[in-house]
Amino acid sequence: MLSSDRASDAIVIGGGTNGLACATRLAQSGRKVTLLESADHIGGGAVTTEFAPGYRVSGLAHILHMLDPRVARGMALDKHGLTLIASNLSTTLLGNDPLVMTGQRVSGLSSTDQQAWDALSTKLTRFANALAPFRQMTPPRPARGVGNDLAKLARLGLNLRRMGQTDFREFLRMILINVADVLEDDLTDDRLMGLLAFDTMLGAWLGPRSPNSLILLLNRLSGGALTLPRGGMGAVADAMAQSAQAAGVNIRTNANVARIEITTDRATGVALTNGETLTAGLIVSAINPRTTFENLVGPRGFDTGLLRQSRNIRSRGGAAKLHLALTGTPDFRGADLKSRLVIAPSVNAVENAFNPVKYNEVPAHPVMEIILPSAHEPGMAPQGHHSLSAVVQFAPHAPADPDRARSTMLANILTTLEDHAPGIGALIARSELLMPYDIAARYGMQGGNWHHGELAVEQMLFLRPFAGVSQYETPLPGLWLAGAGAHPGGGISGASGWNAAERIIKVQP
Questions:
Q1: Strand bridging mode 33-36 / 250-252
Q2: At what angle do helices 179-186 and 214-221 cross, to 10 degrees?
Q3: What is the pLDDT of residues 88-112, one digit of tens each?
Q4: How confident is the model at residue 468 (pLDDT cuts 50, 70, 90)?
Q5: How far apart are CA 181 and CA 50, in angstroms?
Q6: Predicted pLDDT at 117
Q7: Coil, helix or strand for 317?
Q8: pLDDT for 207-216, tens place per residue?
Q9: Which domains does the chain have, with CATH numbers?
Q10: What is the DSSP string of 346-400?
């Protein structure tokens, strides 16, 4: 067995955005940090890939809008090469009568609908802003002696109470209801309701009529403007990697962890699949919590109760990722190709796309979000050609016949695209469709869930990934969590990793 001659204070497992953020912050605190990534590239799902010769797209998420400002500032990402080609991306809801939204401003509504949306938007944004600070803190646990930041919680509680009695009661009424009820109570325009319902469900395994779904819209509204990084999502990871290395982090790719080493009931290092071992007093896992608990540790370090809770983490993926290589310019009935294009004509259309997935079947009319990276910058497709990237909802994560489900899903997607961009089928030189099970295999996301665990009210805050490990520290001394499966969840934000590092620095200065 090989052993490493480089001693580290901390080892971070997983080179996604959370792992990079955590490793950098720990290094900034004076620790010697080694970051291990199993793939031959850094970034995890935040990668720019060439899926066909000359055609490049972001591998998974293709829009940046929840990057934690502490991460952007603390890692000086702008100084390490991150630039934006679109800083406030508009959204066009496709259809016979398109709707355009920029930020919370909408064009194409009647005056009555505009007034109704202005009022609802103001209210929802106020509620979202009240919840936003929870993203940047260790989640509180309802118990004594567990390290809750009582002063910060008191300030947050005071901010909620400052809404006033009427707004506070409305906040409590709405927080756990479904988004469809809220939209249909206040709005009448099917297009706007369809767009908002789609945005709420993006990346989730819920429909707009599922209980507690409104909280996902509030979470999204707290994320800021929609932006596009120059060079795709891989550019975000590259800037973070440069920042990490500047802070002194030793980044190793092609370093696949086989197990976490345990000595006298404490995590003391890792064993790699190549036979090498690395030791450190602090082990931080920024990969899927189920993979960490069940595969890297298992019953050697955890009791059956914790492993049972781990197995019960719901991690069903409901999104597929489509890439198309186009030999010409598609025409989405005159829509601006530099906008975010959405196909989601109504709340019921979104709900009907979700219904079959509950039974592991393919929807006949999927809803989707489309970006053409080649419309924004050169180099993403050959001259005169275009690359198309789409996040498609909903897709079954465990169908009986995966190959048949993938081919049926692709056919249904292309039919839907042809309805909104006549002639696009004749432009397709190559297609790639990643179903949730393909995403799981390629990126190590259990069930193909982009958040490493479903974002639902019963798996948020002190319940993420489950009670008892929600403050990043696990029952195995020396082992911590820092991935999207921990609070506050997924998205290209780095928040989970930064929060975990701050918690570690506080508890183990």
A1: parallel
A2: 80
A3: 999 999 999 999 999 888 998 999 9
A4: confident
A5: 42
A6: 95
A7: coil
A8: 999 999 999 9
A9: 2-46+65-82+231-313+465-507 (3.50.50.60)
A10: SHHHHHHHHGGGGGT---SS-EEEEE-HHHHSTTSSSTT-EEEEEEEE---SS-S
